[in-house]
Amino acid sequence: MKKTPETLTIAGSDSGGGAGIQADLKTFQELGVYGTSVITAVTAQNTTGVSAIYPMTIQAVQKQLEAVGNDFNIAALKTGMLFNPGIINETARTIKQFGWENLVVDPVMIAKGGAHLLQQEAIEALKVYLLPLALVVTPNIPEAEMLTGITILDDVSRRHAAKEILSLGAKAVVIKGGHGTDPNHSEDYLLQSTGESIVYRSARISTNQTHGTGCTFAAAVTAELAKGKCLQEALFVAKQFIQAALSDPLNIGAGHGPTNHAAYRERGLEEQGVNKIEVFY
Ligand SMILES: Nc1ncnc2c1ncn2[C@@H]1O[C@H](COP(=O)(O)OP(=O)(O)O)[C@@H](O)[C@H]1O
Ligand SMILES: Cc1ncc(COP(=O)(O)O)c(N)n1
User: Fold this and answer.
1) Is 189 in the pocket of ligand 1 (CB under 6 A)?
2) Measured from the CB, is residue 166 less than 6 Å from ligand 1?
3) N or C: which end of the chain has fewer CB within 10 A?
4) Nearest CA to ligand 2 atom 13
5) What InterPro entries is this protein classified in (predicted)?
6) For residue 199, what pLDDT is reported?
7) DSSP letters along the chain, please?
8) 140 pocket-lining for ligand 1 (C-beta < 6 Å)
9) Whose CA is nearest to atom 10 of ligand 2?
10) What is the CATH number of the domain that holds 24?
11) Could you report the predicted ipTM of this complex, rounded to two decimals?
12) For the segment 184-194, what is each residue's pLDDT rounded down to a tens digit?
């Protein structure tokens, strides 16, 4: 009998379909795992920005978590937009209750258009309650700076910030490079609590169709972990997946368009050329 790994995303809904729950479920489907979802907030959003946010009540989040936990065998899960301290506390409590492992925490804070997807006072809750449970935390550069107070200017300050995030209790951190200043490359930097570090480097693709890159990347990591890959391999696939999704744009919407979740499956990966991923130990 075929056994499909079961996964969960705990995140916000993006009516535009490019980020949040929608990006996560598309990515899960593309990578061959079964996706369940707990919605923390509904956003009215499209490629030009977020026009409204409606957080769920803590009870609504709790009921969804319970429904999933009571029936599914969650092999890996991710969190995205959690919005407020109450939702973070409830999420952390339930993850412990069900003993869910392979937790990917994407500390979503600010949408590309500038909307706040996490309240300022929730940053502390994220650090205290959720990060200690994480197998891996995947901040972008501004999020890593907000979590640590360290300005990331070069490899030394990036490592310093990564160490600081590990000191909060996560087993590993990946500081993603989409917001980096290198015009030619986008580098994702992994630091594990063992001290081991890896850089995953791709060509930087010149595009404004980057809506949902972080969600998609973290969902791909989650899917690969659910399939039994180790973290280092899961990150490699995720980097390939997002590179393919960025290099074959859909041209949808008037603003920051969504990435193409089907590209990895449809086109495969050219080992050379724009989709080549370099790995440095
Ligand atoms: N222009 C780009 N070219 C290639 N890869 C990119 C580009 N922008 C983002 N990425 C990749 O997309 C993933 C998400 O990164 P990032 O954009 O930093 O996250 P977020 O969406 O959370 O801001 C990372 O793997 C990063 O390297
Ligand atoms: C509901 C929701 N969750 C997350 C993001 C972040 O998107 P990005 O991955 O582009 O930073 C978003 N815009 N909306």
Assistant:
1) no
2) no
3) N
4) 111
5) HMP/HMP-P_kinase_dom, PM/HMP-P_kinase-1, Ribokinase-like
6) 98
7) ---PPEEEEEEEEETTSSSHHHHHHHHHHHTT-EEEEEEEEEEEEETTEEEEEEEPPHHHHHHHHHHHHTT--EEEEEE---BSHHHHHHHHHHHHHHT--SEEE----B-TTS-BSB-TTHHHHIIIIIGGG-SEE---HHHHHHHH-----SHHHHHHHHHHHHTTT-SEEEE--TT-S-SSEEEEEEEETTS-EEEEEEEPP--S--BTHHHHHHHHHHHHHHTT--HHHHHHHHHHHHHHHHHS----SSSSPBP-TTHHHHH---SSGGG--EEE-
8) yes
9) 212
10) 3.40.1190.20
11) 0.98
12) 999 999 999 99
State how far the Cα of 17 lies from the Cα of 187, in Å rounded to an integer. 26
* Whether the model pTM is above 0.95: yes
Query: Is position 102 within any domain?
Result: yes
Q: What is the pLDDT of residues 201-254, one digit of tens each?
A: 999 999 999 999 999 999 999 999 999 999 999 999 999 999 999 999 999 999
Ligand 2 centroid–CA 212 distance in Å is 5
- What are the Cα distances from residue 276, in Å, to 32, 179, 201, 248, 279? 23, 20, 9, 14, 10
Q: How far is the CA of 1 from the centre of ligand 2 (A)?
A: 36
> Does the residue 237 lie in any domain?
yes
Q: Which two tokens stand for residue 106?
A: 């994407």
Q: Is 196 a domain residue?
A: no
For 110, the domain range is 6-175+207-272
Residue 54 within a domain: yes
* Domains held by the chain: number: 1
